[in-house]
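Re-run with default settings, no changes from the original entry. Doing this only to confirm the output is reproducible before filing.
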Amino acid sequence: MKMAYTNKKTGQIDDGLVREVVSLVQTQSILKKKGRLVGLGRRTRSVPHSSAPPPFVDPEVLTAQLKDKDDRISLLQTQMAAQQVGYEAQRRLNQQMMEMMQRMYPNEVFPDVPDP
């Protein structure tokens, strides 16, 4: 391959033909996206290599996190059970009120309201 000489002051290639070829190759290999040149970027350091080992996590920390999650799940299940008991009590109360209204007003037609 022919060596291209550059001007020491400007840093540009002296040979016009070589300069045109290099310019053409650079513009063909670099895509333009939203007016910016793309394709010359470097890999960021935040992206790990595929062969890099996963970061070390202390098993005690993982165990503590799992226990905390288990405790929260248990608390939520208890809260949901208490809510269900409340819903059942409200449903029974609504049913009793409806029966009482039907006894008080036997000629009236009351709409069926579905339970929540």
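The chain has a mean pLDDT of 76. The helical segments are 16-29, 59-104.
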